[in-house]
Amino acid sequence: MKKIVLSALAVLTLGSVASNAAALKLYQDANGQVFTQPAQGRTLIKTPTSVFSHADKLKFDGQAFIGYKSTTYAHNATPDDQDFEIRRGYFQLKAYLLDDPKSYYRITMDLTRESAENANTNGSMIVRAKYAYLNLNEVLPFTSFEIGLAHRPWHDYEEHNSWLYRSISEILIENKNSAHISSSADFGVMAKTRTKYFDSDIGVFNGEGYHSAQNSNGMSLEWRFTGHLLGTHGKPEKNTYLDASFFGQLNQKHSLNAVTNHEDDLHFYGLHTVYNQPSFLLSAQYVYSEDTSKDSSATGAVSAGSGDGYSVNGAYRLGNEHQYKMFARYDNWTPDVVSGATEYAKITEIAGVAWKQNRNVEWIANVTHNDNDYAAGTVNPHSTAYMLTAQIDY
Predict the structure, then answer these.
(1) Which of 42, 77, 313, 334 could make an S-S bridge to 27, C-beta 3.0–4.6 Å?
(2) Which CATH architecture has domain 53-393?
């Protein structure tokens, strides 16, 4: 009696599934593990479990950030801590539904750790939706649309062209020790224009972000305009490019960064530039954020997201395939304070090295230092984290 330990999910995660499933050959070892290549001890599965889909093509991939972090605190009574972490655990499906091969439905699920204060999960790992959208290609000339739980205009660009180490820190506008004024996905619609010398992303969203309560009374207009001054695009380890960007977000009555009972109209604007060669990268940006609410009940209140700051980062790459890297980053963010209070800066300094073992695995070791000026009520203004991370792409 044949024993085949195989599920539809296991077959699909081996790679992209061709529309002609009969051409895919699978092999099984004595333990029931399934492979796509023959080898000693593996036998051909003559009648594999069939996989059905109403889409012409399905594509599966994933990404994970697995790490260890040891943090020391210079002030207050908080004890030092050490943790093994899964900072990201993506599993992604694209279903190609239309005749256009660049139109698809995408859903991305992500592992995350809930806070210990949540009585339902008590700090356990849960799975939540990060993206779930329909991408329609060339609705307008050079322009496609994302509809659903979609990308916001700025984050994805910076993480693929400028700050390449999301596995250890978010970008300036998302980093909790910096601006912390926007998350990377939200419910809405975004138009994406792509040309040789110019890109733009313009979207209308709920404004609260994908992991916040959707209790907004208004919408958020968000954008990114990028000039590719050399006529070349990303791929940092292969291309030379010089980009300049203007990005921002106009929120209406959105409560994510509100204080007391105040709903704020948080507006922010950013300028960013990056110059990259295969051997090195240099980047800088400035962001200004303000609360434009005229709510008289909020007299004396200040939005937690108001302020201004800048970030610079650089990287140097060595090796025949630029697989050895050194990188550093400096963030400086000054929050707005109520009248009469002392202004203070929130500073994040990061330095590290990386080794790209192959196209699937990259190892990263870094030190992150938070050196914040003292402000009344500030918790742990000074800390140093030592981190080791494996970034896995498949």
Answers:
(1) 42
(2) Beta Barrel (2.40)
Write down the mean pLDDT value for the chain.
Answer: 85
Pick the closest to residue 286 from 307, 257, 260 (CA basis): 307
Chain centroid to CA 72: how far? 26
Note the pLDDT tens digit of each residue in 178-228: 999 999 999 999 999 999 999 999 999 998 888 877 766 778 999 999 999
Closest CA relative to residue 108, chosen from 89, 80, 124: 89
Average pLDDT rounded to a whole number, residues 347-352: 97
DSSP string spanning 281-343? EEEEEEEEEEE----GGGTT---TT-EEEEEEEEEEEESTTS-EEEEEEEEEEEE---TTSPP
Query: Are 64 and 89 contacting, i.e. CB atoms less than 8 angstroms apart?
Result: yes
What letters, b where the CB count within 10 A reaches 16 and e where it falls short, cover 356-386?
beeeeebebebebebbbeeeeeeeebbbbbe
**pLDDT recorded at residue 299:** 53
Q: Pick the range with the lowest mean pLDDT from 71-80, 235-244, 345-354.
A: 71-80
Coil, strand or helix at 124: coil
Residue whose pair of structure tokens reads 């400028």 in the numeric block: 162
Residue 222 tokens read as: 């968000």
d(CA 268, CA 252): 12
38: helix, coil or strand?
A: coil
Residues of the chain with pLDDT > 90, as a percent, come to: 59
Output the pLDDT for position 5: 34
For residue 293, what are its two tokens?
A: 């609410």
CA distance 321 to 236: 12
The 3-state secondary structure of 251-269, one letter per residue:
ECCECCCCCCCCCECEEEE
Cα–Cα distance for residue pair 298/281, rounded to 1 Å: 44
Are 348 and 369 spatial neighbours (Cβ–Cβ below 8 Å)? yes
The more confidently predicted of residues 102 and 208 is 102
**Domain coordinates in residue numbering, the chain:** 1-52, 53-393
93 contact partners, CB below 8 Å, separation of at least 6: 58, 59, 60, 106, 107, 108
Residue with tokens 């980093």: 175
Q: Which sign, positive or negative, has the C-alpha torsion 203, 209, 214, 216?
A: negative
Q: How far lies 180's CA from each of 102, 164, 169, 258, 346, in Å?
A: 33, 18, 12, 13, 11
Which of these ranges, 8-22, 232-246, 318-332, 376-390, has the smallest mean pLDDT? Answer: 8-22
